[in-house]
Amino acid sequence: MLDAESKGALKERRVLVTGGAGFIGSEVVRQLYELEADVTVLDNFSSGKMDYIKKFHDVKVVEGDVCDYEVVSKTLEDQELVVHLAALPFIPDCYHHPDEFFRVNAMGTVNMVWESIRSETIERFVHVSSSEVYGTARYVPMDEEHPTRPNSTYAVSKLAADRAVFAMHKEHGFPAVIVRPFNSYGPNVTQPYIIPEITLQLLSANDRIRLGNVESSRDFTYVTDTAQGIIVALTSKNAVGETINLGSGREIKIRDLIFLMAGFLEKQVKIERDPTRVRPYDVERLLCDYTKARDILKWEPKVSLEEGLRKTIEWMMKHPVGFKGPFKGWYQSYYGRA
User: Fold this and answer.
1) Same domain as 257, residue 242
2) Residue 294 domain-assigned?
3) Are residues 149 and 213 in the same domain?
4) Each residue of 249-262: pLDDT tens digit?
5) pLDDT in tens, 228-237
């Protein structure tokens, strides 16, 4: 976790957060703001929301695309640290828009790294990857040496970005860190990931939860913990050149997750399989080994699954969620939202 020295090291440091209006990004921005960093957000607002960051009055916001060379180059001027979160993240969309996923997730990352190298001012670049690059667990818990066998175009595009970041780190001696969060959840929802999706269905009048594969299991990490791990990677002396997992070290089947969440609302539900929601090549199991994060970053998750779920449900009850994105997906027709 951030010790006093690390907290002081971020005060008044110029930090660029790409995707800073998004789900994890807005939490990273919040924590950096509280640490008195000088934060700039680069976001195209395809799914991120200005409402999530507008209360941080000193944060500068640049609306733009990470694939735009001129915008990236200009935004990087005089920055010192970069957290790169901007990506197309919603897996069901990648089946229909693989070219865009590679353009943004892979080439957008290459552009960010290359322009950061050329800027000659960037002292640390934290690239945020995804546990999806591992594919289904071959062994558990999954450490950073686990084989990478991605199961979706999204995951392949993220792995391509990882490889590019590492190669450019080696080629140019560029101080980069790759962080791989497992499934994050919490407030400031931007996509109908599984926990927001379950919550929305639980809050409806219907007593039936319609999902695809409910027998798969995931390692869920509350977003404040994920964001703190990312921020620690900005300052940790031994993190450069490393790939580091962030996760809870606990797995739960989606079926059990549904009943756990329903219990918080004292609601009796039945689960129905929806064939339209079954992913063609799904990841069946993810379980994080965060030993490396503990050793290098001195990071451990603080928020239990039960506490995090309660906070998420409470937030969603108070904040009506409408999903928007660069593509028209099943969620728009399902909820009738743009």
Assistant:
1) no
2) no
3) no
4) 999 999 999 999 99
5) 999 999 999 9
